[in-house]
Amino acid sequence: MRVFRTSDGVELFRENESKASSYWADFDRAGRLVTSSFDGRLRLYDAEHRKLADREAPRGRKPFGVAFSPDGQQIAVAYSDSARVDVVSGTELQWLFSPNTSGISNPLGSVAWSADGVFLFAAGRHQVGDRLSIRRWSQSGRGRILDLPGPLSTIVDLRPLTDGRLAYGSQGPTWGVLAPSGERIIHRGTTQADLRGLGQSFRIDRRGERVSFDYGNRKEHWAVFSVPGRHLILDPATYYRGYYDGELLASPRTSAPGLNITWESTTEPRRNGVILPLKANETFLSLAVAADDQSFLLGTDRYLRAFRSDGAELWSKPNSVPGPAWAVNLTTDGRLALAAFGDGTIRWFRARDGAELLALFTYRDGMRWVLWTPGGYYDASGDGKDLIGWHVNRGSDEAADFLPASQFRDTYRRPDIIALVLETLDEAEAVRRADWKSPPAPAPPPPPPPPT
């Protein structure tokens, strides 16, 4: 943990005692600092960065969010591995009390006090109905509880506003503001498709050329995208029928004879009772078994992984995963692996080695879309051409540039390449074939005559 002076960037203080990751810090109005660490400890420093206290957190092994009360006399602590919230002393970090978290089973990673200190708030993955909720306690955490409406995705930060309102931010990415009464007065949602919870509803045709998905995680905004036709059709009936253009769109298989994979509601997925080799704290989210029963595909919060049926890993793709792999599927011909990610994209991978071939992004309005290869060749709806582009850094002292793909339309808008990628399973080969089929470029005009 490092402390910098904002006026000139000079490092004022460095703490190297934590034996694990540290995700949160908070200053009080007097300049004191409290930090949390996954080594299980809380640390408190004065305004001159001298350590005042170093104490093990009262509950969970992984304290996460910490927040000073407005008067600095109390500190609220939330955890990434526990649904509890604790309040400790703002001077010695001693446990004072634990607010009522009855009815909460998922961690509450973020905490905040109202500006006047009357209310304490906590949020994370606590869900009420179909939305996540923010738990509020009166009497500075000792009083009545009230669950306030939140967004659809994990809440990662809470910030009190001076007039009694509360701002929240989530992984959606979404943000909003609640009134002092708890009523939601502002909510700004994501512009991308929310692909969480697709599961068995992430359906594809036998060649992986047509895929169905839901825009809003509620089975209300169902769509089908066709790569050969390059069109997006909003078709809620597809969800109920399961057919598109007369062909059955198949759900991912999650079992096979002699292959028992336990994965739901567990941090240690197993194949026939043997733990699969995942990274520490990697969350297992989705599964698809190949049609020949010889392999299976796993989607996690950080990886896309393929295994043989005997449990040996075939390949893993950490660098090609732009977010949690909420759903995966495999084509019945064994050529393609598809995944729906947390950034709102659906991506096609070569099943034998995990090489990415194609990516689809659809805008939340159900009209705009763009489809592109790793090399930047793309096709798009008429008004979707600027949904992707190149991000160019200009150094630490200048804002980056964004160059929309439409600026390079003549070079990179290549529907002929897009049409061949899933057939060839190789972008370079698709480019070669498309260029071979393309008519020769017109001859340039003759140069002007030399001046006389």
Question: Keywords, please?
Answer:
4 helices, mainly beta, 452 residues, six-stranded antiparallel β-sheet
Q: How would you describe the overall organization of this protein?
A:
This protein is mostly beta strands. The strands form eleven sheets. It has a six-stranded antiparallel β-sheet, covered by helices on one side. The chain has a four-stranded antiparallel β-sheet with strand order 3-4-5-6, with no helix packed on it.
What amount of the residues lies in strands?
A: 35-45%
Give Rg in angstroms.
26 Å
Mean of residue pLDDT values: 88
Largest sheet: 6 strands, antiparallel
Q: Which parts are unreliable, with pLDDT below 50 for 5 consecutive residues or more?
A: none
The number of distinct helices, counting runs of at least 4 residues, comes to: 4
Characterize the quaternary organization of these chains.
single chain
| Cα-to-Cα separation, first versus last residue | 74 Å
* Large-scale geometry: globular
- Strand arrangement across the biggest beta sheet: 32-33-34-35-36-37
